[in-house]
Amino acid sequence: MTGPRYPDLIAALPETVPFVGPEVQERARGVAFKARLGANESVFGPSPFAIAAIQDEAAEIWKYADPSHLDLKGAIAAHMGCAPDNILIGEGIDGLLGYLVRLLVAEGDAVVTSDGAYPTFNYHVAGFGGVLHKIPYAGDHEDLGGLISKAAEVDAKLVYLANPDNPMGSWHSAAAIEAALDNLPKGCVLALDEAYIEFAPEGTAPAIAFDDPRVVRLRTFSKAYGMAGARIGYAISAAPVIRAFDKIRNHFGMNRMALAGALAALEDREWLDEVIRLTAEARDEIGRIALANGLMPLPSATNFVAVDCGQDGDFARAVLAGLIERGVFVRMPFVAPQDRCIRISAGRAEDLAVLEQALPEALQAARESTGS
Description:
Elements lengths: L7 H5 L9 H8 L5 E2 L11 H10 L12 H11 L6 E4 L1 H13 L5 E5 L4 H9 L3 E5 L8 H11 L3 E5 L11 H8 L7 E5 L21 E6 L12 E4 L2 H7 L10 H12 L1 H24 L3 E2 L6 E5 L4 H13 L2 E2 L11 E5 L3 H22 L2
Parallel strand pairs: 1-11, 3-4, 3-5, 5-6, 6-7
Antiparallel strand pairs: 2-8, 7-8, 9-10, 10-12
Helix pairs in contact: 3-10, 4-10, 5-6, 11-13, 12-13
C-alpha cells in the first residue's frame, strides 16, 4: 500500500499551528473558560443589523456567494474613498496573508518580518518555502526602519508590518510609515496589517495612494466589527495588484451569510462607535487591575493590553498558566524580551471581574513556582 507523495518542502515542515485555540484548551482541561480574554475577539459582538442580515440571508444559503463580492466591495470602496477595483475580499486577514504570500513568494525568496510579530504570517511564508529574515523589536515597537533596511539587504519581495501591533499594542504614526515608504527597495511590497486600525488614535492610518502597488493594506471585520467567526477581511491596493489575486484566490471561498452581515455592519457606524468606547473603557479597567497588582500595562491602540509582569518570560508563562488554571483564557508574546508580558483582550464587566479575582492568585502561584 502506498500513500501521498509529499513534496520535500511539505515533508520538512513541522506539524504545528500558529495558535492553540481556546476550545482545544477547554477540551484538554475538561471545563469551559470563565472569561475568554485571549484571542482579541470582540466580546461586545456585531451590530444588531449585522445579526439580522445574517439571519435574513440564511434561507439563501443554498446558493454560492457572488464570487466578485461586488456589493461588499462597493460599500468598502465608498467607505474608504477608492474604487471597487482597489478592494479584495477574503477569508479574514489570515486567509488574505496566505493569498499574498502565494502570489509573491516562491521557494527561496526573502521575506522580512519582526521577531515575535504575528506568527500566522510566518506560517504562510514557511508553507511556500520563503526564507524569513527577522528583525527584533525596538523597545516594544516593531522596528520600522530596521525592517526596511533588512529588506534592502536581502532583496526581500515582501515585508510584514502590523500597525497597530499585535502582540504589544504599540503603533507607529501615519507620518512615520509614509516616510518609510520612500526607502522601500525596488520590487518589494509592504504588507501593512491594519486589523486594529479602528481602535487607534487619529493620525495612525497613513495616507497611501490607492494606486500605489508597493503596499497591500489588510483590514478585517473580526475585531471592531465583532465578526471573527464570519472570517471576512479585505485588502486594499492598486487595481493591477488586486486583479493578480484572481489568478490564485478561492473564488467561491466566502460565506454569503457572512458577506451580508459584513455589509450591514459596515453601515452601522453608531454600533462601531459604541464598541470603540466600550473597548477603551475595558482597556482602562485592565490597566487598573494590572496596576493594583503591581504590574505595568503598556499603552495600547488595539482591543487588548499587554501587561508587563515585571520579570522574565518564565515568570510570565507561570502567570499565564495560573490564569488558565483559574478559568481565564489569555495569551502572551512568544519572543523575549516581549515575553515578559501577558496579553489580555478587552472584556465585559463580568469578564474583567473574573480576571480581577484570578490575577492575584495566579501571581502568587507564579511566585511560589518560580521562587520569585
